[in-house]
Amino acid sequence: MGFVEYSFEFYEPGCKAVFRKYSHQEAAIREGVSAHVRREIDTDFAKTKLATRRHFEGHKVYECRVNLAKLPALRVAFALDGSQVTIVYMSTNIQKSEFSAEIESFLN
User: Fold this and answer.
1) What is the DSSP code (8-state) at residue 57?
2) What is the C-alpha to C-alpha distance for residues 73 and 33, in angstroms, rounded to an integer?
3) Which residues touch 42 (CB under 8 Å, ≥6 apart)?
4) What is the DSSP letter of 100?
5) Cα separation of 44 and 21, whole Å?
6) I want to staple 59 with a disulfide (CB 3.0 to 4.6 A). Which of 21, 24, 46, 79 is the partner?
7) What pLDDT, on the 0 to 100 scale, is given for residue 2?
8) Full set of structural domains in the chain with CATH
9) Sheet strands side by side (includes 49-56)
């Protein structure tokens, strides 16, 4: 299998709270989250689980924890459509059960 170049999009309604809270670090968060999710995809979702049974624009939603140096730990939900990755939702609430409730409410 050849190298796939992924394109990342951050879904504004689901990411704006984190970007607003850490506005001075938005570029670093975007870069760190994109790199982490790319690694997860390349390793066949080694540390990734389905976030919910709900779909985002017809695609399954996965979640993983992202630990960024000098930045807050995040839990991130994303959808994959070929080489297009959409970061659907981000939260500083890293506890899985609470994040699951957040994403269910958000996608409702």
Assistant:
1) T
2) 10
3) none
4) H
5) 31
6) 79
7) 54
8) 7-107 (3.30.2310)
9) 7-10, 84-91, 74-81, 59-66, 49-56
